[in-house]
Fold Ribonuclease HII.
Amino acid sequence: MTGKTKSIPTLTLETLLAARVGGLVCGVDEAGRGPWAGPVSAGAVILSADDIPEGIDDSKALTEKRRAALAVEIKARAVAWGVGFASPEEIEDLNILQATGLAMCRAIEAMAVQPKAALVDGNYRFKLPCDVETAVGGDGLSLSIAAASILAKTARDEIMITADAEYPGYGFASHKGYNAPIHQAALKAMGPCPIHRRSWAPIRALLSR
């Protein structure tokens, strides 16, 4: 029995969508929907078919060092790119799904060149400032979505590393706000800090004690 061959991202989905809408297409992806702390981030990227950095892939398939190097190349060589965030407070006010859409809108609005359509990872059709097409598993299929995933992930990681210095003891630089033993232990010892998502069940349980 042979293992499943991993797909290699291409520009096929973007090319088909661009022909349909008659304009530029950006890839969009998010990072940080699941953590207990910190913002949710989104990236948006329009790649140039003639100048694509080598090695772009789903951010989860790359090392932190490789993501950081590719983020620099993507920003330098893309037609346009943008990064957006929704804060922990906005996540509380809106819920995580709507906050993710807000971060995506901000990422697109931050682009120097506005797209005619967005190719978004997943199956939820967010309301964005352009046409929207979804792609399940898009970060492994679309180079633009994969590039967006890299920008979203690296930008959020930078924020959490900064937060580690501002709120020492939680280990944000290592786990980036996700569920981890060191994070659980810090919450039990110190309680939540201002960037924790207080509606999350584990945080809510601590606050209710």
User: Anything to note?
Assistant: The mean pLDDT is 95.
